[in-house]
């Protein structure tokens, strides 16, 4: 048998990017004596998990219970199903760096022992890493993720994202855009460097493609400053000047920039206009008191002040755009008045990727499942504290 840690990795590295799934299947069948394998990926709304099918064999892997896939995906733990003949289906989370991509199903001739399950889980991690890298070189996995056609604006927004989740010894971060297939100007971005997490949430002015283009310029201006070693303030000021000199104050981007010190839990912030920062501490939900400054791009050479606040181990931060906070279908009170806090409290035992889904589903229910009138972006950050890191 192939050694799981070398043979599968080699097969994935040598495979063309659009054939990673097939290479993984061949290697897994050899390494684990499996009879079949299927890779499922989560869609943009994270409403389901869908097989990455070979176009030459469209029927392969289509008959799988979504509830079992969702159980594996949500718990991030292996799940087993055994039929009356003793054959087993093993479901494994396909995740890397905290990013949940999907589920790997492995069919085995009999019930696996703990060592086989461990090896299979390691292989699923290798598959996740390969898929993450291959995604830049082929459209195949993007096609599997979309259940309907993306608008041009949404295509830009999803391509601009760093991912949907990232994990670290001291924090776990996740975000979601809605409406997933037509989102315009709302966006989030993050980067982890030298025990410092920088996260931004943006609410671009306008709708559709114009809003998406405005947000893309703003995000890349902040990235340019950040990658050149610029501080949080310098990131905000470069982005503001860039937007202003493009639009002369007629367009602007409401933004909050956060920088978390992963060792101390101290957060530096620049609040440029809108997205709301909400803290869940125990069962208490409260807004983090930040002084709102001018949105990016309103005036030439706007200067921004830095603010700071502390996180305690176990704290959860939600950052939400006005599309979440101020949603008021049918003239009722805004979602942020009371309903949002109830939804946030309900997520206490869920990890951030599940938490953003819960609050977004409650937002959809608040709209009686009608399409959202406005773009909505949500980011959830759990601060674990540095003690767990020291023990690891």
UniProtKB/TrEMBL annotation:
Keyword presence, Repeat: no
SMART domains registered for this protein in UniProt: PP2C_SIG
Pfam families hit by this protein: SpoIIE (PF07228)
Gene3D superfamilies in the record: 3.30.450.40, PPM-type phosphatase domain
Domain of life of the native organism: Bacteria
UniProt entry keywords in alphabetical sequence: Hydrolase
Start and end residues of each PPM-type phosphatase domain: 168-383
Keyword Disulfide bond attached: no
Record InterPro entries: Bact_Sigma-Reg (IPR052016), GAF-like_dom_sf (IPR029016), PPM-type-like_dom_sf (IPR036457), PPM-type_phosphatase-like_dom (IPR001932)
GO molecular function: phosphatase activity
Stated name of the protein: Protein phosphatase
Organism expressing this protein natively: Micromonospora endophytica
